[in-house]
Amino acid sequence: MTEHRFNDVSFWCLLNDADKSALFQAGTVRVVARDEILVVQDESSDHLLIVLQGCVKVLTDSASGYRAVLALRSKGDLLGEQAGVDGGSRSATLKAVLPGQVLVVPLDRFRELATRRAGIARARDKVLSGRLREADRKRLSTSEPVPERLAALLLELRDRFGRPGARPGETCIELHLSQEDLAGLVLSSLRTVSRVLEEWRHQMVVSTGRQSLRILNEDRLRATAEGR
Prior knowledge:
alpha+beta; four-stranded antiparallel β-sheet
């Protein structure tokens, strides 16, 4: 997997060098393996995480036993920020999708730094605000057809995690994401997403394997995402 740049609007990219150094001094770098569970929903824990490398999926379990992927977080993203504000239990499970590294910062040290260093507080508040806007956008997007939403998601994954495939114009997305994961990310049912992917496979738009996906016809996928 190729190296990926930090998200330009990530928590980490909002900090200056002095703020980053203070967080490194307060925390501990932890190496994580693919599929490793970092945080469990409803548990009480005393730290938050900053993704230094890799990708983490945010999962939630309903009372009925249904599990959905709410979001993917990657390089530079802050995880557990809500607990960093109110100290409550974890609202979701965090699971590594790729091998990587996270910076583990104790909540009390993070709160102390946010009090003393305005840059860290501003970055945290911007992340919290951005997550609310992100949730609003996802709710509004449900008015769009599922193929448009799924095509837009796959193109985003291509930009963030794709690498050139064996054939010209082919892109491989080697994330451990199931079709159920994709359904959660586009707020649709597994049945609908499976049907759309089956159609695209027949049309040679995508090729799917066990928790891997290849984009074969980016132009067709982009046209679908744009409603054409």
